[in-house]
Amino acid sequence: MSARTAIALPALLLPLVLLLTGCSGSSSANSGGGNTDGKGSVTLNVGDQKGGSEAVLRAAGELDDLPYKIRWSTFTSGPPLLEAVNAKAVDIGAVGNTPPVFAAAAKSRIKVIAATHGTSYGEAIVVKKGSELRTVADLRGKSVAVAQGSSAHYQLTASLAKAGLSIDDVKVSLLQPADALAAFTRGKVDAWAIWDPYTSQALRQADARVLTTGQGVVNGLGFQVAAPAALDDGEKSKVIADYLRRLHRAQDWVFKHPEEWAKVWAKETGLPYETALDSVHRSHGTRVTVAVDEAAVASEQKIADTFAELGLTPRRFSFRDFVDTRFNAGLPPSTAAPRSYGKGH
Q1: Is 149 exposed, middle or buried (0-12, 13-18, 19+ CB in 10 A)?
Q2: pLDDT-derived band of residue 269, with 50, 70 and 90 as boundaries?
């Protein structure tokens, strides 16, 4: 490998280090003061990630004429965002399906209050295009890179189980995405378990192909998580309800305007436009707003139990104890079919 290639490898994922790593089970906090929108006597403190809720609400016009204030704080990933929720530094924030499990296991003061359901095509195990590996069963004895405690870690475990294997049947390399990309590109690992937009980028830029996806294996859920103190405040609870409705409308806008949102998302995150659009089609734009119901709780409980068995969380617990269902009214079940952009997406 040339020196030029060696330098280029970390740069390939550099924009994504700052992106939606909310699926990750561990990350250092890097919050900062952001914009403040709206006017009024009530201020909602929202934790966000780069290219996240603020960007999509603004692009969809949902921050216009806001009758209350939103103060934005930006975090590198879901875990530190939830640390801020626990500390009452923010009132609410969006994360993937894994950070709430780790926060709950740590007995954080959080409540899961809203959800989205999207396709799981972006959750994937990828191999090199020229690899002889054709099925998950072929991974026996092979090396697989994955970020510890991430949604991909769960997907890898569940995919192996579906193929009659256990996590002990493969050689797991616990690597964060930038390091995993370098190892994958250099052939140091046989496969890489990742999530979108890393999946979309690997397929376009790392000579990768999909061995298997998370469809039928992972739940495809994302969550809004709030501080109990904010929910107990009558005025703030009303504002949260309005905020969730705006997010619902913004998600509808994303599905109807994939190219427009991909341009915004690419600018916000540094993703190439084509990769951003791939990710919108593959996963991001397919999300529908759903209820945090018994099916959602059960699927998260399965993740929690799996990580406890792997020794990645300190205890077993009931995920239901960390859920507030007051905003479920009128929403479809968590198993409602995601949207689709048609064949090939």
Answers
A1: buried
A2: confident
